[in-house]
Amino acid sequence: MTIAAPMSRWQGPSLFSMEGMSLLDDEAIQVAVKSLEGRRVRIILTLRDLGRVIPSQWQELAKNKPVSGYREYLAAMVRPGGEKSPHFRSFWARQDAPVILSRWLQHLPVEDVIVVTVPPAGAPKGQFWDRFCEATGLPAGRFDSSVRVNESLGASAAEVMRYVSMNIPDPKD
In the predicted model, is pLDDT for residue 138 greater than 60? Predict the structure, then answer.
């Protein structure tokens, strides 16, 4: 069963959220859109400034798999020659908004390809939620957006997680 099956059976609007959708190639996007034939399909791409995305992505890697220290990772993202790094390729496959948007725009009308920007640090609490609700048509006031559920790791905690992930034996070995 695909995710489209229960969405197609549902009479009301459906919301499917998955970061991996940014990795879909032209053929996969075509299959995804076609699987929801008869329904309005919209894609919402959330964008955050690179000064926050790069450390966030490194933290996720540090929690889940061996990765270099942050300085080395950052250098691979921004220095010439960094494109040879698998982390560089993985990062930009998920973060290259013009490429991601152009793929989706081949299959959806422009009004169904929506960009929601994440407010800068220090913005009023709930501003991102309000923007997301505006894009989706959800009533923002109906949900409690005061709870922060995606806290960032501090530098020390991220380094501990990186050390642990680097020292856990790979079950394939």
Answer: yes
